[in-house]
Write a structure and sequence with these properties.
The chain is mostly helical and 225 residues long. The chain contains 4 helices and 2 strands. It has a two-stranded antiparallel ribbon. The longest helix is centred in the middle third of the chain and has 65 residues, at 99-163.
């Protein structure tokens, strides 16, 4: 591909800044998750101890009271960790690049820059393709005009030869250019239609076997048409 690809650096910088902020906040989030996990363990321990004491008829009052105290303390720890995480998130400074800046840079700067390089390359190729197709049709018409009279004369002579008994054969008198086989089709007009058809199929993923990528538009030699 001759189209130069550009990195949208601002987006990468924005992501890096976001990753740095996320890493800092993750420390507080990790402490919070650890505190919540410990609270869950204590609550599970209380339920298990209580259930076992009932099941076996044992007295676990003192043990349950201790676990209950630990749960109350751990709930305070969780509350503090939630507060710290919330305050840290609010206090965390925004990066130098905002999400609004990223979108604005993309729309106002990046897209126009890429398009300014892309458009002339593709536009030149499409114009060349158009000129080539139309030139083929002009060649077809010129060929018809140039040899049409000759074909008619030969066809007339052929008919006379047969009618006069000079030959029993009656060969088909083809036009030199109108019956040319191009793009696997008979005649330039059909060939042009075949080209358009192959281009259409390519847009759906079917690439011709003999396709050759043209990186740059070749120099055109303009005719008088």
């Amino acid at each position: 591909m001759t189209i130069k690809t550009h990195e949208f650096k601002m987006l990468q910088d924005y992501k890096e800044e976001g990753a740095e902020r996320a890493a800092k906040h993750q420390r507080y989030q990790a402490d919070l998750e650890s505190a919540r996990a410990r609270l869950s363990e204590l609550q599970t321990q209380y339920e298990h101890t209580f259930t076992e004491s009932v099941k076996h008829g044992t007295d676990a009052t003192e043990q349950l009271a201790k676990i209950d105290d630990d749960i109350a303390l751990q709930k305070e720890v969780v509350a503090r960790r939630e507060r710290d995480a919330r305050l840290a998130h609010a206090a965390m400074p925004e990066g130098k690049i905002s999400s609004v800046d990223v979108v604005k840079e993309y729309v106002d700067v990046f897209v126009p820059k890429v398009r300014s390089e892309y458009e002339p390359i593709v536009d030149a190729k499409l114009k060349m393709a158009r000129d080539l197709l139309i030139s083929c049709i002009i060649d077809h018409r010129d060929g018809e005009d140039a040899y049409g009279y000759l074909r008619e004369e030969i066809a007339e002579i052929t008919r006379a030869n047969r009618s006069q008994g000079k030959t029993s054969e009656s060969p088909v008198i083809d036009h030199p250019t109108s019956t040319a086989k191009v793009m696997g089709s008979l005649g330039v007009t059909n060939g042009v239609h075949e080209v358009i058809s192959q281009v259409s199929r390519f847009t759906y993923g079917h690439k011709p076997n003999d396709f050759e990528y043209i990186a740059e538009v070749p120099t055109k030699i303009k005719g008088a048409k």
